[in-house]
Amino acid sequence: MPARCFFLLLFMLTSAHALTSAELQQFIDEAIQSKDGGEVVIPPGRHVLERALIIRDAQKLRITGLDAETTVLALAPAAFAICVQEAKAGETVVRASRMQELKPGMDLRIEAEGEIDAFTKKPKPYHLAKVKAVRENEIELAAPLKFPCPAGTMLRDLHAPNLIELRGKCDKVLISKLTLDGGRTEADPLIRGHSELCGIFAQGDYSYEKGPTGPKVRGVMIDRCFIQNCHGRGIALYSCEDVRIEKCTIRDTSDEAIDLDHFTSGAVLRHNHVARSLVGVELNDASGCVVEQNDFLECGTGINLWRWCKQAGLNEKNVIRGNEFLRTKGNGVQLASGTALNTVTENTILDSGKNGIVINGTDQMVKDNTIRGSRLKDVVKVK
Fold it and tell me: What is the pTM of this model?
């Protein structure tokens, strides 16, 4: 029996119950081993994942739902607490409220200034601790704090999962017709998971100083998915190339809906609907990408293009074309300093909370855009 038919039959036989991370991971691993490329077809239902589904070194793999709206992969509630009284460096107890899902042995990311970062030469915006015990309104730590934890600080699981991760030498992976739910609710505090608690997270090997240090994740196609309620990004791509994201709906994310990050190149984002996210699309050290014919509703910023790393040629020759932006809270499109040779054309930007388009950088081509109702200015050119 061909591998593709085998995995379809296997999932149909198990469709009477919600599948676990372990079950899904087993099927994915077996499909990756197929010589001709395997297919994992996930049945309708709400499948709650306690850890990420890892796609590593996959070639010609297909992961698809039978129906996008009813085939749901969801994260369990996020683990976090809020510090209610400052814990000083050297102390081992943090008084906290709103504790949820914290457990002994868990590594914590404390969202307060920590050690000096070797790259930026500034304090990191977090430091780390390990939970020894959890009591009513108290977290006992396994070792004294190295840095203070001020009142109001968020503490969260350092190893919080993403829903789907792509790692290693992946090529031609299709993810289609799934709903990916990050588990965020209106009652949750603001958690910006960044590289955790994302819908889809893909990363090739790289460093800030050297750039890509191994094969990029390439040829990924994300098609006709609903991605929602993520504390992190909806889709995050680091050191990837030739990725296609098409006909997806991404909504209600605490961080960026789609993030094209360090050394990602040649990505195409087309015909997607993005709503109520911190940033609709972020391009950070990304080059040669196309963002066209998408619509953005009530995001913080529509599209943000900026530079972090220092290598030549980053954030160049991206095309932002034919998109619609409605009621962004901030700017519709913003191009930061250190970027060059990008094209912003034929977009419609209506009722921005700040400016329509902000232009920094050099040799940017901005033309033929329709901009109305900006609270500040339609176009701002920064010298």
Answer: 0.92
